[in-house]
Amino acid sequence: MSAAHILIVDDNRDFAKKLAKALEGIFRVEISHTEAEFRQRFAVGRFDLLIMDMRLEKNREGLDLLKDALTQDPTQAAIVMTAYADAESYTEALASGALTYLNKHEFSPVLIARTVEAIVQQAALRRQVAALQRRLDASEPGEIIGTSLGIRQVRDGIRQAADDGRASVAIVGEAGTGRSLAARNIHHLSRRRADGPFVVGSCAGLGPNAREEAMFGTFRRMESGRRAESKGWVDNAKGGILFLDGFNVRDEIAVKHLAEFVRTGGFQRKGGTRTIEADVQLVVSISPGSQPSGDCRTSRTILPSTGGIEINVPPLRERTEDILLLAQYALQNLYREGRTLTRSFRSSAIATMETLPWPGNVRELVSAIEYAAIRADAAGMHEIGPEHLPQSVSESPPLSADTPTTLDYQLHLARAELALVESSIDRFEFTKKAKLAEKLRYNDRFTFARRIRRHLHAYPSLAREYPRTDALFASRKEKHR
Q1: How do residues 237-284 score in pLDDT, each as one tens digit?
Q2: Topology of domain 149-314, per CATH?
């Protein structure tokens, strides 16, 4: 096992040298005397421990550097030292994320060295716990980001499918819209299925025979008379969910076999005659292009008699109001992972992204943000601009002029305020505008009501998105039209 790697950050060169001498031979040690040297040396995961002076370079706070380091890597272990110890600095150091706080007058370099080994072991355990937590998080479904009507309907469909636990589900949407994410959320939220397996069967590239074998397994008798039986996706998904990714509804044989399985709860292996029972909730993802022309098939027609649930995931070009949220979420994930120092977007970059068609949908957007963050970092920029986006994206034909976007600031503001009101009506079941205004802390209920009516009048389409708000705030004259 290699020696732990330690970085000492102290502008007192004599003290830093004595401390390094006490640590060398047991640990690999580097020294930084200035902020510039620290920033040149520090990288996520490079050092097992930072030993930092609380003040650097004429009152430049060492704690500021520690906070910057922990922003890039929350698991970074650090010890803070100071020659000016008091209760306030002790509290501030620990609040900034230091594992311990040492007074230079009480702890000589030799004494500090004796405590470092225990701190390094503690830091190693913290990193192991963090790694295990990341693995656990990776097994959990991600968030479905967005406030658009289409995404709210997707969430409603997911909850319905999860609460039911038995009905077959068809998730209809283009590639990259989040069909797999929706399926995983159904499994995660299901009281009946969450403890069972989540099995993904990829139907892409499989012919009818191979698809049937993959789903239900095979049964053969060998020349020796022995039986050769192999299990399929349905066997592996017992008690849980089978997610058929990229299911093609034109495959009539597959549709027939699946419909029979869902109807009876039993199936036969290819080549076999014995019926095998399996308690499985079936979820299929379907591309609109795989459906017969002019035939808007739902899960009820794909899988007859199942009482199926259909969830339609809208393409990104139809929910441009979600682009800013998705882009910020993707960038923050990159930042938390230490893969970029970029934290924000220029308004021109957002404006560009909101006018693009995104044929690859959310998957394409996330890839574009990753690419843009790398280019912004390379240029030393702290914001992503349009020039950092991939050329293939930024040169795509824009959406038509009548496509709604969040470039209309007033529309963005109206939607945000109406969404707040709608959620409050749903949550607290208000039927009086005065009570609602009081709950939301508006000073004047009449001004509040005029604001909401003005939003609904200026943007009639929002009345369909927020029907309870519209019903509560519509004037009597409008109600009797």
Answers
A1: 999 999 998 876 666 777 788 888 888 889 888 888 888 999 999 999
A2: Rossmann fold (3.40.50)
Q: Read out DSSP for 418-440?
A: HHHHHHHHHHH----HHHHHHHT
How high is the pLDDT of residue 64? Answer: 79
Local structure of 79: helix, strand or coil? strand
Cα(293)–Cα(289) distance, integer angstroms: 8
Reduce the DSSP state of residue 133 to 3 states and report it: helix
List every span in the chain annotated with CATH 3.40.50.300: 149-314
Name the phi and psi angles at 282, rounded to 5. -100, 130
Say how far apart CA 314 and CA 150 lie, in whole Å: 6
For residues 188, 190, 191 and 194, what is the CA-based torsion angle, rounded to 10 degrees? -40
Pick the CATH number of 5-139 from 3.40.630.10, 3.20.20.100, 3.40.50.2300, 3.30.450.20: 3.40.50.2300
Task: Name the nearest CA neighbour of 181 among 142, 235, 155, 152.
Answer: 142
Q: What is the mean pLDDT of residues 432-459?
A: 78
Under the phi-then-psi rule, with left for phi > 0, alpha for psi from -120 to 50, and beta for the rest, what region is 271?
left
Count CB neighbours of 2 within 10 A: 6
C-alpha 472/C-alpha 464 separation (Å) is 13
- The alpha helices in 337-444, defined as continuous H runs, are 347-354, 361-378, 391-394, 409-428, 433-439
Q: What is the DSSP string of 50-62?
A: EEEESEETTTEEH
Phi, psi of 470, deg, nearest 5 = -60, -40
Give the global pTM. 0.55
Q: How far is CA 190 from the centre of its chain?
A: 19
Of 150, 149, 144, nearest to 315 by C-alpha is 150
Q: Please enumerate in sequence order all residues whose Cβ is within 8 A of that of 162, keeping only pairs 6 or more positions apart, or say none.
A: 185, 186, 187, 188, 189, 190, 191, 193
Tokens standing for residue 205: 């590239």
Task: Specify which residues 29 forms β-bridges with.
Answer: 6
Instruction: Using the Cα atoms of residue 266, residue 267, residue 268 and residue 269 in order, give the sign of their dihedral.
Output: negative
C-alpha 125 chain-centroid distance: 26
Distances (CA, A) of 213 to 223, 228, 267: 21, 13, 12
Cα three-residue angle 386-416-172, rounded to 5 degrees = 75
- Quick one: pLDDT at residue 63? 76
